[in-house]
Amino acid sequence: MQECIFCKIAENKIPSVNIYDSGKSLAFMDIMPARKGHVLVIPRKHGEILSDISEEDLKDVILTVRKVTDAMFKSLCCDGINVHQCNRAAAGQVVNHVHFHLIPRSEGDNLNFGWPHEAYDKGEMENIAGKIRSSL
Ligand SMILES: [Zn+2]
């Protein structure tokens, strides 16, 4: 896809500071980090959301996520790491190429990933679970 900035990074048409390249996936530094050390992991082949990515490529991406988070724990002295992935704009996706954010965290860093909790009506959770199960 011509206009996709992550495809251009994967094709070395835009410079990036790379961490790891499996051949199928690429890990590189986010230039607008939520915290210093923030890494992005992408499949090399374009897909907008998870279901657009082949199983083989998706397995490679998540193994790259694990490999890089292991390296971040060893090298950055972080207390934790968030792995964050968005599907479509309503969920906060800005670049329409599947990507995982790996964000190093420190105790008390005040980066807020908290969200409110809704309450289900009686039977509502089971109903929604049934809708999801029937679509598997
Ligand atoms: Zn792309």
Bound molecules: zinc ion
Give me the number of helical elements. 3
In round numbers, the mean pLDDT is: 95
SSE ordering: HEEEHEEH
State the separation between the terminal residues, measured CA to CA. Answer: 29 Å
CATH homologous superfamily caption: HIT-like
Looking at how many chains there are and whether they match, the oligomeric state comes to single chain
Identify the CATH class: Alpha Beta
Strand content: 15-25%
Structural class given helices, strands, pairing?
Answer: alpha+beta
CATH topology-level name: HIT family, subunit A
- Low-confidence regions: none
How many strands?
Answer: 5
Share of helix, binned: 25-40%
Q: Summarize the main sheet.
A: 5 strands, antiparallel
Strand order of the largest sheet: 1-2-3-5-4
Characterise this structure.
This protein has 136 residues and is an alpha+beta fold. The chain has one domain (5-134): HIT family, subunit A, CATH 3.30.428. 29% of the residues lie in helices and 18% in strands. The chain contains 3 helices and 5 strands. The protein has a 5-stranded antiparallel sheet with strand order 1-2-3-5-4, covered by helices on one side. A hairpin with a 3-residue loop joins strand 1 (18-21) and strand 2 (25-29). The longest helix has 22 residues, at 55-76. The two termini are 29 Å apart. The mean pLDDT is 95. The structure holds zinc ion (ZN).
Topology:
Layout: H1 5-10, E1 18-21, E2 25-29, E3 39-43, H2 55-76, E4 80-84, E5 100-105, H3 124-134
Antiparallel strand pairs: 1-2, 2-3, 3-5, 4-5
